[in-house]
Write a structure and sequence with these properties.
The protein has about 170 residues and is mainly β. The chain has 1 helix and 14 strands, in the order βββββββββββββαβ.
């Protein structure tokens, strides 16, 4: 059994952590960096900042964009290292997203119920963890497929194993 301090540290802030607000963003601190825990805006296109209040944004926390059904586009910063559980769950209008190169963790249900998602680019060559249900119910509507572009075979294997309920609705390409 591993001691508590031996578990890997992953920036996955939850609403229970001390939160700060800057504009439309709520965030918590994780090792001196910021983890976005909620987006308060209603824009259809959002650019997540690489810095907030002088802190580097390294994570999208659990449920940060949950049920933002009008959200069509999200641009993530190159400083990002993790995408938490249910981060984009219920973003049913989201059509595509590019996961930056330094992201090493994608949590459970991260992209659940993103029915209109057609393309995803995963730029990371070294994903350390992709939850087995990260894409559960992310499949596009009948007759459509979602293409996930990855950098190498290792990442492709991780993504294919995380496709959940309906892998035939997905194409994973290197």
């Amino acid at each position: 059994v591993m001691a508590e301090d031996e578990f890997p540290s992953v920036a996955m802030a939850t609403k229970a952590d001390a939160a700060y607000v800057s504009g439309n963003w709520e965030y918590t601190l994780e090792n001196g960096d910021a983890v976005i825990t909620e987006y308060y805006g209603s824009a259809t296109s959002v650019t997540v900042p690489s810095q907030i209040d002088g802190l580097t944004v390294v994570g999208i926390g659990s449920r940060a964009f949950e049920d933002k059904s009008n959200l069509v586009e999200v641009i993530l910063p190159n400083t990002l290292e993790s995408i938490g559980n249910s981060a984009f769950e219920g973003c049913s209008s989201l059509t595509g997203i590019s996961i930056p190169v330094d992201v090493t963790f994608i949590g459970s249900y991260a992209f659940r119920d993103t029915y209109k998602m057609k393309k995803m680019y995963i730029m990371s060559e070294t994903l350390e963890s992709v939850a087995s249900d990260a894409f559960l119910w992310a499949a596009p509507p009948k007759g459509a497929t979602m293409t996930i572009y990855v950098k190498n075979q290792t990442v492709k294997n991780q993504i294919v194993s995380a496709l959940g309920n309906n892998p035939s609705k997905f194409t994973v390409e290197i």
